[in-house]
Amino acid sequence: MRESEKLKAGVTSPMQQQDGHQNSEQLYQKEVAKLITDIRQAHCHKNNILDGLETEKSIKDQSELEDIGMSENDFEDLKRRVRMQEASRRYRKRKKATTRSQREEMERLKRQLRQLQYYAEQSGDPEHWQKVANTEKKMQAEQKHIAKIRNLVRAIREAQRDEKKLIRSIGSLIQVYK
Fold first, then answer.
1. Alpha helices in 10-125 (DSSP H)
2. Residue 69 per-residue DSSP state
3. Residue ranges under compositional bias (Polar residues) (predicted)?
């Protein structure tokens, strides 16, 4: 599948996902910078301050904020907005991670369930195994009985041989004394 087809199909590779994460970070930073710039411009316009360079400076340089005449309340409001955006972003990120981990856990549990169902189908029901165990016990008992019967048959044959020998010896003794 070519890259253009993957993009059309909505398939993203791990590399594209990482790039997407970096892009979202950059986009977020741009949004914060734009918000700061908008607030500064609104403040400058409101107070008739016409210094274009001041609107492009960073929020980290508080001394320059005082130079453009931004009041403490406006600055605190700006900081509060930025904190709220960062908190919202962290919340969305946490929520996304939680959802992803829950989805992965569900997939793992589904695989485990399928595996257990497969083993259950292969092994049959417990009643079947109980019947097999009982049958095995019966077969072992029958094997013991068969062994006893064989021993008895062997003993009978030996007794028959001994009896035949005795009869022959008695017959030969009778013929000798006749």
1. 14-46, 62-67, 72-123
2. T
3. 13-26
